[in-house]
Amino acid sequence: MNIFRLAGDMTHLASVLVLLLKIHTIKSCAGISLKTQELYALVFATRYLDLFISYISLYNTLMKLIFLGSSFSIVWYIRRHKIVRRSYDKDQDTFRHYFLILPCLLLALIIHEKFTFREVMWTFSLYLEAVAILPQLVLLQRTRNIDNLTGQYVLLLG
Questions:
Q1: Residue ranges in the chain assigned as alpha helix (H)
Q2: Entry's PROSITE patterns (predicted)?
Q3: What pTM did the predictor assign?
Q4: Which domain range does residue 64 map to?
């Protein structure tokens, strides 16, 4: 554990909390890209394949569970919550996020530390995390309507 990892974890956690606060209290996901949230859910699902296999520390396990749970709950809110899903603007969130997945996977198959399933998936998650914010940025550029909580979320996530 170093200070940079801790700072990164805390800013990412803060961004997720800001987003969940917005969605839960306002009952709106306006300005939020479902595609970015799906990519982050995929990032954490592939990165934390070792969750139930290897134990590093309580902090590590808790952060993995928080990031997995929060990313899938955000996707659930936007897709399934009867009130929140009405505020999702599908017409504006048109970035073809599937085109990000294949190049990241191919890159992970080529450039990795060792050729094992978990290592390739972990490497894939790193590459995908680097570009997962793109659908959100494109959505914000299209709508040009950035509320305070959405702006804070993007700032903390970046």
A1: 3-21, 34-47, 58-80, 98-110, 117-131, 134-143, 148-157
A2: ER_LUMEN_RECEPTOR_1 (PS00951), ER_LUMEN_RECEPTOR_2 (PS00952)
A3: 0.90
A4: 7-157
